[in-house]
Amino acid sequence: MRIPSLVVLALTLMVRPLMAQDINSYTLENGMEVLVIEDHRAPVVVQMVWYRAGAADEKPGVSGVAHFLEHLLFKATDDLESGELSDTVAANGGSDNAFTSKDYTAYYQRIAADRLELVMTMEADRMRDLRLTVDDIATERDVILEERNMRTENNPSALFSEQRTAAQYMNHPYGIPIIGWKHEMSKLSLEDALAYYRRYYAPNNAILVVAGDVQPTDVLALAQKHYGPLAPTVDLPKRNRTIEPPQLSERRLSYQDARVSQPYVIRTYLAPERNSGDQTQSAALTMLAELLGGNGQTSVLSRKLQFEQQKAIYTSAFYDGMSLDQTTFGLVIVPSVGISLTEGEALLDAAVAEFIEEGVDAEQFERIKMQLRAGLIYEQDNVQALANRYGSALTSGLTIKDVQDWPQILQDVTAEDVIKAAALLLDKKQAVTGWLSTPTTTEQVSQ
Amino acid sequence: MKQIYLALIALLTFATTAQAEVKIQQITSPGGITAWLVEEHSIPFTSLEIRFKGGANLDAAGKRGATNLMVGLLEEGAGDKDARQFAAAAERLAASFGFSTRNDSLSVSAKFLSENRKAAMALLQTALQTPRFDQDAIDRVRAQIVSGIQSDAKDPDKISGRTFDELAFAGHPYATSRSGALESVAALTRDDLLAAKLATMARDRLHVAAVGDITPTQLGALLDELLGDLPAVGADMPERAKYQLKGGVTLVPYDTPQSVVTFGLEGIKRDDDDFFAAYLMNTIFGGSGRQSRLMEEVREKRGLTYGVYSYLLPMDYAELYMGSVASANDRVAESIDVIRTEWIKLAENGVTEDELNGAKTYLTGAYPLRFDGNGPIANIMVGMQMQGLPVDYIATRNDKVNAVTLDDIARVAKRMVRPEDLHFVVVGQPEGLEASD
Fold this sequence. Notes:
heterodimer; A: alpha+beta; six-stranded mixed beta sheet; five-stranded mixed beta sheet; 11 strands; 45% helix; B: alpha+beta; Cytochrome Bc1 Complex, Chain A, domain 1; 14 strands
């Protein structure tokens, strides 16, 4: 059931087609894909190069090498001195950085639109012509170890997350942390980095996304000039990763650390991801996460556990379908003072079971859909976020059309679809349940 | 029906080096509320930023945390709606509201679709004018804040920053967390929250900026409805904070593998004649990420850390020049040693002409890139008002950067970069490092 004002908005959105008109895409002869997203409101451009290679594409035993190489890409090439790319971007008033995920590695610069060719020249240069030294390796390896210290070793929640993720994936590389296991990071060599680089850093494994105050034909011409001459990797392997066996047994783990102040329970379930041409199941899970835990006041878990009974300080449900292989659906409860983790977990299970029994609140469902529609308006204000979306989708097995279809697929999800998808949450055989607490008992900590 | 009257004080167009055009209109509403507006009609929504000077600095004696708890409750029930009804109404309109406080200011942010403007603003108006502060909501939000205070007490970053503030500003609100302490938060009552609202949310300390699909007339009418009935005058502003920290090293033992370091000394006022010289000096020293001296020496050359930074922190009632680094317990002493050496080099030799020119091209080129999107522009404009900057500041800012000379930096380095006054707070189990206190 729709109320009239919502129909008006839906129409408004239809006469303002968003992505279809704003995306231009090309493929260079060497296999490199090029995407252009126009936004002429400010004289700024973002150049991103996305590689279809992330931590889950590493060989066994060299965990962290994808991220390590990302750091090393700021060192010398045949044409650039170490650090020169970033120095040049900064000298032109721009900013640059890079990030590594399980399925992709991406590099970007944000700069005045008339400097696009400058950053394209340098980005193309480091795709194939990196010149690493043994000294680079030793110093930068110390940097990534300090990065791991900062992100993980100093953070009990992050250590806990690593242990849970390793338990979630019994055979798939998603179980290995992106930053790497410390004992393997400390042994990463020049050869390890170069092997990964030579195999994956190539135009036929890369996507160029340019967003901002540019003309698509100009971008294509520049891309042909600078990326066009680069040689592809001829024996580029298919991304066939190891596959999970049937998960038959619930996994439970408990991590205790004196640095924990707030104990909590978190459970993740192995869940299907978005697949090209087949996103409906993922859309239902996306809506399920929104309904259960998307809003601190109105979502089902908040209502049941923080309002109707004041048994939790915080609850959440989360799911991200943007993934090449199977992803996870998660539930969290931070119990109130005096509520043990045992009770908290039971309350969480009861709330989910009740939700499945009671069905979807039609009004809440419509509010979420309204917000998703409005999101299409708000997101036009942030072209870099759009660039990120296309880059991550195209490196996660999706197409431009899949990205453009996604908003409507979400709108088409029915209450029945959601309840059907929620059956996932009743089967703990594919789930990992974790308790985080201090070495003392929960009750003592909470006082 | 009020007569719509609108005073257009200024309509200025600024063309920066990258031709970023920001047409700021200064408007005064019929009821006398002033605001800065950039009209941007290409996307049908508006970003609105509202700021009140004062913020958590105005917590009454013994009531530390009152403003923070009060702000956390503004969206937890207002007018005829309880917390969940209020949130559901905002969801239905696809409007988003943000409420937060810092020591120097209280912030309200809103984003709403043009077609829902009236309804969204009527809803926000109830949060600002008639928040309910229901007891169950107070208890619920208080429990969340207490959880946060307990987490901060075990977070090495937070411990480090907090320790520095306690040593630097004992006796002033700046010394303590705006969230309050466990005891002070536990004792807060509904009356304390009502008092905190009267103290902080008044029209004599108000600044507003809006960017988006809205005209000056529409904005003027909206502001009168939204803010017109707030009290005219709030609480007195606090005294200046006296900086009390001497140079040296404070150790806070904490069992964690990587030591977290906060360092600093007294800084410089935002309206000081030498502020831009200090800003450029710091950009070169530790403010520009990968390109800074600190990153080059501590990270790039020695691999001692993932990140090392320094920054100027001019607040309303005190000024700091601060920095941070984190290194493994067995390497942090070397990091501090390198930072000290660079600090002394900066004090003695200043910067080079090449460095100064590089910092100028970086800062002047980066400035126009900040003006991307309705939310960011509204934030910049309200920030300018809070700092007392004129509306034509955007056009003159890069000239101020370019006017800084090597002599200016040498002068400001002599004044600010005093090796004997630099204080380090180290949280962790550092090896080979002695406390000075």
